[in-house]
Amino acid sequence: MPETRIPDDDDDLPHTSPYRFRRLLKKVLPRTLFGRSLLIIVTPVILAQTMATWIFYDRHWETITKRLAFGVAGEITLAIGQLQNAPDPVSQSLTMALTERATDIQVRILPDTDLPEKDAPIEGTLPRILANALTQQARLPFHIKSNFMPEWYEIRVLVPGLSKDGTARVVQILSPERRLYSPTNFIFILWMIGSSLVLFTIAIVFMRNQIRPIRRLAIAADSLGKGRDVPHFKLEGATEVRQAAAAFLVMRARIQRQISQRTEMLAGVSHDLRTPLTRMKLQLALLGDGPDIEELRSDVTEMEGMIDGYLAFARGEGSEQVRPTDLGRLLFEVANNERRAGATVTLTTTPSMVLPLRASAFRRALVNLIANARRHASHVWVRAQQYPSMIEIVIDDDGPGIPAAHREDVFKPFFRLDTSRNPETGGAGLGLAVARDVVRGHGGEITLDDNPQGGLRAIIRIPI
């Protein structure tokens, strides 16, 4: 079922290459004011955090990690040099024990062991930095195993001159992982994530409080457009929002004052016009019967009907209050009244269609539409159905219909397809105008179309 669509501000852009990027950007960006405002606040925060992260990892983290890696590589080089200068195994054992106690790294000589073949590049940032440091300081063949034990690195170095015959042996060095990085990394990451979450939460709460008055203003304007009063609306929010809300309240007061003045004026016009008509009817009753008298009586009756139609159109919905109304019951009553007037009306409704209406005014709109169909057709079908966002009322007839070129003209006041002004073929040309005025006063719309079975179809859509 078609719904009211809010047009985008780029709907009128031509489909040319200079505007394609703008259209794509419009599709990616959020459509709500809350989303766009939050994006404006969050984007600088994200950029600032990104720049801070880049500077940290490019300067602080990499520099500190290099210094730590070179420190470990220097201790390893020092331990290897002491082992090479040790004259016997006892001195080597003493050197290894002293190194473990002073530097927190463990050193062992592995006899009859060779270095693993370097068949794959070194993976991981820390192992690569450590390998670079060992290459520059130790200048000996080595192999690094980062997953030797949890939180431990294994470095094997082929050191010449450790055996009695002067051959090279493999020295195993175990270094704790904590020696290769600073705990400020985790502190920095936690600080970035925590501060971001706090800032996002504050931004969301702040923007919700700022957007809430705008949403209430939109709801109030929508309710007023549907003919419903908004007595509890008040000024709140930022200065600009308060200005818009104040302008809305002034507009509402002007509309209500205009309706009240029009109703009061028409009440006086009704009294002034009906008084002379009543005197004319009394005088005609005293004159007796005759052809001329009957023509005058017919003219007075027609004039009275025209005045009733004019007043009904000008009065609109008057001062009637909006109340929850069972639309199905209202349609049932209108259909029964038309059946008593001689019409053949088939009614189909769904249960529990309750919505806020000015019942008398809406009844008048339905009566005008169904009576217009009854006047020109032999059978009238009325169907009402509820959708998620609206209620649709369809009135079909099997009459001659209305030409497509005149389907908007018939809603104009005093417009009649029959130019003879014969009251038998139509009233004063105000029935459809009154019906559309009432339906629009409820925020809805009336359209005319072809009945698939032949004749005219009138469609009323009322938003829920």
What count of helical segments does DSSP give?
10
**Total count of strands:** 11
Can you tell me the residue ranges where pLDDT is under 50 for at least 5 consecutive residues? Answer: 1-7, 419-423
Return the string of H and E elements: HHHEHEEEHHHEHEEHEEHEE
Strand content: 15-25%
Tell me, rounded to a whole number, the average pLDDT.
Answer: 80
Main beta sheet: strand number and arrangement?
5 strands, mixed
* Radius of gyration from the alpha-carbon trace, in angstroms: 45 Å
User: Structural class of the secondary elements?
Assistant: alpha+beta
End-to-end separation in angstroms reads 14 Å
The percentage helix is 40-55%
The gross shape turns out to be rod-shaped
> Looking across the biggest beta sheet, what order are the strands in?
6-8-9-11-10
Provide the fold topology:
Elements: H1 17-28, H2 33-85, H3 89-103, E1 106-110, H4 125-137, E2 142-149, E3 152-159, E4 169-176, H5 184-225, H6 239-286, H7 291-315, E5 323-326, H8 327-340, E6 345-348, E7 354-357, H9 359-376, E8 380-386, E9 390-397, H10 431-441, E10 445-450, E11 456-463
